[in-house]
Design brief:
This protein folds into 3 domains: 165 residues, no CATH class; 241 residues, 3 Solenoid (Pectate Lyase C-like), CATH 2.160.20; 127 residues, Jelly Rolls. The chain is 2% helix and 37% strand. It contains 2 helices and 65 strands. The strands form 9 sheets. It has a 15-stranded parallel β-sheet that branches. The two termini are 34 Å apart. 55% of the residues are buried.
Length: 756
């Protein structure tokens, strides 16, 4: 994995050979030449003509269009769209609705010749209005669902005794029930007035943990009969009529009423070296899927996505927020607010979010999040993230860097969540460092940095976490190869699992300051932690004070405690005698971070030991086939809530060794220290084969392996010592004879040494 510096400069506009300047103005015409004296009227007109090195200067105003560049830029000659200096430019996905006439009572109507279906959205003088619903919305809090109580329900629907009778077929139900990890939505197919029951079908995965029969709240949306309060609207597709009860009895003809018409403001899919600078976005978003080296800078994006739902659960089934994949793209120095789901989905590789302010996101209360990180080697740095329906940051994929962020007010809607959340993920060395996280507002289970069941290979250090009202750091079991160093937390460091056999192999917790306690586990390496510090000694005023607990009481951890100034490393997130680090965005002084992961000898040295990393078709990333050479990847058929013995992967993917002959895989592991004790470990399941073994060779000692013949998963640990000059070893898994056997979650770490 590449870990070298990737400098993200404070100003990413590339110095380049001068290209043409093209001008756009609301007062222009697309029949003009595009000069400053004769500007175009639309940005798209300019985008259709621009070549590498060209710059489009956009005069102040609102532009109702989707901008799709016809060409890409080049490394030293980007295509740039930027606002004219000192002027406010907005690209809007909404358009004006005019020609209002009285319908009946306080309700008005107008014709609307476009329809985005579940994505329709209406604004009144720039303010978002709620779609007609029951119960009515009584406040402007985007993250307050204001639902009605559910009195019962089952797989066929939900019961609410207070629900008024009506023809509710076709309406959408939003609900938060039972475990409340996520909301779900469904489309009403019938109504039983005698029971006061809305009828619809729910899939099993929703019913298991989010059954309306266990109680909760809901609202109903999307019928004309629900239009009964100021500020509500309803759109009737057959007649193309928009109905509106204006706020405060206003005449809509004297106000700016707009309705969403487009999903995208900028479509940069597949483009390279395109820059969008200082241009605001309203009621639309930007698409950077499969883009390369594109930049979004100085943008204020609001109401970037919306849906009423109708068939959703953990996810919304559609892109929301700014979507990024490809490589080398950067979103920085920008504000993003008011998305129904994600704020930014950061996939691909070597992409970054820097110095951004993200807030009031995931108002649907699903698994959307302000920043959702996937892919490989992406970075989230120096950003402020707050007020969201569920988590503030979600992580999957490998080798990411999350640093210097100020994160707070998670959990405005859902339960069982964290400021940062990941689940069943091999982090591949993902590093969470130098973040301030506080105030988890979830009504249910609340965590800070939350590594849920089956998570591995994370490095968590130098974070300050407080006011979670739960556990500031949680490592749910099984948990493997997770390293937790030098954090300051006001509460506890906990763990939880479903089965007594759950392991925490390779987890290390060291040099931490805690106001609470650390939940023990036989596997857990614990050293140099100070627990149960009273609040008068550990609080927001003392986190970095020179009189705080733990001064010079820490152990040296290479790559983590380097550069300490005293007699030894301090416990916790701050080091006496060194500059204080700060978090969050600063638009006035944009930071200049690097992507550089820490190197510590205690990390797992096996690449793709989980076998879950993306692999080229037919290959197994990081591994070579040996013996019969028929090893293949398989995916287990159940998830974290089922015991791993019920599937042929420990979690996610595993390697299947099958056929009539010996079969196996191997990996050469580099970066080892000579004359040092290590342990190779992994999960093996012989199943139909006679046996399967895990071992090591090429370390200067004799080949060493341990065999398993079990029909359920068994954790195997093989100890070895490197030779006087050896810095590599070959790890292998081999099945003997016929039948199928499986292996998963292989690691190689320093053998644990008890703390002095």
């Amino acid at each position: 994995m590449k870990k070298g510096p990737l400098v993200m400069t404070a100003l990413l506009l590339t110095a380049c050979a001068a290209g043409a300047e093209v001008y756009v103005s609301p007062a222009g015409s697309d029949e003009n030449s595009g000069t400053q004296a004769a500007p175009f009227a639309t940005i798209q007109k300019a985008a259709s003509l621009m070549k590498a090195g060209d710059t489009c200067i956009v005069r102040g105003g609102t532009y109702h269009e989707t901008v799709t560049p016809a060409a890409s830029g080049e490394p030293d000659k980007p295509i740039t769209f930027r606002a004219a200096e000192g002027e406010t430019v907005t690209v809007s996905g909404a358009e004006a609705v005019t020609g209002w006439a009285k319908h009946q009572g306080a309700v008005w109507r107008a014709q609307l010749n476009w329809d985005l279906g579940k994505n329709n959205q209406v604004f009144f003088d720039g303010k978002r209005l709620p779609e007609a619903r029951w119960p009515n919305k009584t406040n402007d809090e985007l993250l307050d669902p204001e639902g009605a109580k559910i009195d019962g329900g089952d797989e066929a629907g939900l019961v609410c005794k207070a629900l008024p009778d009506g023809d509710w077929i076709g309406a959408a139900v939003w609900a938060l029930c039972h475990s409340k990890w996520t909301s779900w939505s469904a489309t009403v197919t019938g109504y039983d007035a005698a029971q006061k029951k809305l009828l619809f079908a729910l899939p099993e995965h929703v019913l298991r943990f989010h059954n309306p029969g266990e109680g909760g709240e809901f609202y109903l949306v999307g019928k004309l009969a629900l239009l009964d309060a100021p500020g509500e609207w309803f759109f009737d597709p057959p007649t193309k009529t928009l109905y509106l009860w204006p706020p405060e009895g206003a005449d809509p003809n004297t106000h700016a009423v707009t309705a969403k018409r487009r999903l995208l403001a900028f479509d940069l899919q597949g483009r390279a070296h395109v820059q969008v600078v200082g241009i605001n976005v309203h009621a639309a978003t930007l698409d950077l899927r499969n883009a390369r080296h594109c930049v979004v800078q100085g943008v204020r994006a609001t109401y970037v996505s919306h849906t009423r739902g109708g068939d959703t659960s953990y996810g919304l089934g559609e892109p929301t927020g700014i979507t990024v994949s490809g490589t080398g793209n950067v979103i920085r120095d920008s504000e993003l607010a008011c998305s129904v789901g994600d704020g930014i989905l950061l996939g691909g590789d070597h992409n970054a979010v820097i110095n951004c302010w993200l807030h009031d996101l995931d108002y649907f209360g699903c698994y959307g999040t302000p920043v959702k990180i996937a892919g490989t080697a992406n970075m989230l740095s120096h950003s402020t993230i707050h007020d969201t329906g569920r988590d503030c940051i979600q992580v999957s994929g490998q080798a990411h860097l999350v640093q210097y962020n100020h994160v707070y007010n998670a959990g405005r809607i859902c339960h069982d969540l964290g400021f940062l959340y990941t689940c069943a993920n091999d982090g591949g060395g993902t590093e969470i460092r130098y973040n301030h996280c506080h105030d988890n507002l979830a009504p249910g289970t609340r965590c800070g940095l939350y590594l849920d069941n089956f998570t591995s290979n994370y490095l968590v250090h130098h974070n300050v976490v407080w006011n979670t009202n739960g556990e500031e750091i949680r490592l749910n079991k099984p948990s493997q190869y997770n390293l937790v160093y030098n954090n300051t937390v006001m509460g506890n460091l906990g763990n939880w699992g479903r089965w007594k056999s759950d392991r925490m192999f390779g987890d290390r917790v060291q040099n931490n300051l805690l106001g609470g306690k650390i939940a023990p586990h036989p596997d857990l390496f614990l050293a140099n932690n100070e627990e149960r510090i009273p609040p008068e000694k550990l609080n927001r005023d003392s986190f970095s004070a020179e009189t705080r607990p733990g001064l010079a009481a820490g152990a040296v951890v290479p790559g983590i405690t380097d550069g300490f100034a005293g007699a030894g490393p301090d416990l916790g997130a701050y080091q006496a005698g060194t500059p204080q680090w700060t978090t969050g965005h600063d638009f006035g002084n944009p930071p200049n971070p690097e992507y550089r992961l820490s190197e510590t000898p205690y990390r797992n040295r096996v690449v793709n030991g989980s076998l879950d990393w993306p692999s080229p078709k037919g290959e197994i990333a990081g591994w070579a086939r040996i013996e019969a050479g028929t090893a293949k990847l398989i995916r287990g058929q159940s998830g974290i809530t089922e015991n791993q013995d019920e599937r042929d992967s420990f979690i996610g993917q595993a390697v299947c060794l099958s056929g009539p002959d010996d079969d196996g895989i191997e990996q050469v592991v580099a970066g080892l220290a000579p004359n040092t004790r290590y342990v190779v470990a992994g999960w093996l399941k012989a199943k139909d084969a006679g046996a399967i073994r895990l071992g090591v060779r090429g370390h200067a000692g004799s080949e060493t392996s341990i065999e398993s013949d079990g029909r359920t998963w068994e954790h195997i640990e093989v100890n070895f010592t490197t030779g006087a000059t050896n810095t590599t070893a070959t790890v292998f898994v081999v099945k003997g004879g016929s039948g199928a056997a499986f292996a998963d979650d292989v690691g190689l770490v320093l053998a644990p040494v008890p703390a002095e």
